[in-house]
């Protein structure tokens, strides 16, 4: 299923379980079902090590920034709304607003074979602005409480040059331990550029 967002210059396609994605008046809504997640435990292989969660992804060209305000209807620990980048079956990353485990937290996961997991800072309420940027093989994660001043969260690379050229980026919902949650993304924006400075708040 393809979804067109007026703010993005590329179409989005659904992956994984049905996220019941909808888009109206600039607001994208998705649902995570019970115990849906995408995480490869670093402590050892599981029967289904990557798991799966609803994803809505597209293929931007060149440098870019993808921005959205993310709001999560938290019900259980680790419910999250996510900006997601994918370059291979075991090469992908998540920038999350997550209930971690009982307060809204900006956190990141980078998967290179196995996933890591790192918390950045807590957030009052259930909304935060998230931003993924790319130049070449490099990706940057930022978060903001107001959509104006951005806090640098992480800088990393994923995959080889050909894989990164074919990167998919977009949205993911998850509810690893719970019965599901709803996530909305608004103030969605796309910029065909890399930030001028990663650490000056811009």
From TrEMBL:
Domain of life: Bacteria
Pfam families per UniProt: DUF1349
InterPro entries: ConA-like_dom_sf, DUF1349, UCP022704
Protein name as it appears in the record: Regulation of enolase 1
């Amino acid at each position: 299923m393809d979804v067109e967002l007026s703010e993005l210059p590329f179409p989005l396609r659904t992956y994984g379980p049905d996220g019941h994605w909808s888009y109206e008046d600039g607001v994208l809504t998705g649902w995570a079902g019970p115990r849906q997640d995408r995480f490869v435990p670093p402590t050892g292989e599981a029967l289904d090590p990557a798991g799966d969660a609803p994803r809505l992804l597209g293929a931007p060209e060149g440098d870019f920034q993808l921005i959205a305000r993310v709001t999560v209807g938290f019900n259980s620990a680790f419910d999250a709304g996510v900006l997601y980048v994918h370059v291979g079956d075991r090469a992908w990353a998540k920038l999350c607003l997550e209930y971690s485990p009982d307060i809204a937290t900006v956190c990141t996961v980078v998967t290179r074979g196995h996933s890591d997991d790192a918390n950045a800072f807590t957030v009052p309420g259930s909304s935060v602005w998230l931003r993924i940027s790319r130049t070449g093989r490099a990706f940057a994660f930022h978060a903001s409480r107001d959509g104006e001043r951005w806090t640098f969260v992480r800088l990393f690379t994923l995959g080889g040059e050909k894989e990164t050229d074919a990167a998919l980026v977009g949205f993911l919902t998850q509810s690893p331990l719970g019965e599901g949650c709803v996530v909305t993304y608004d103030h969605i924006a796309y910029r065909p550029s890399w930030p001028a400075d990663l650490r000056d708040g811009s």
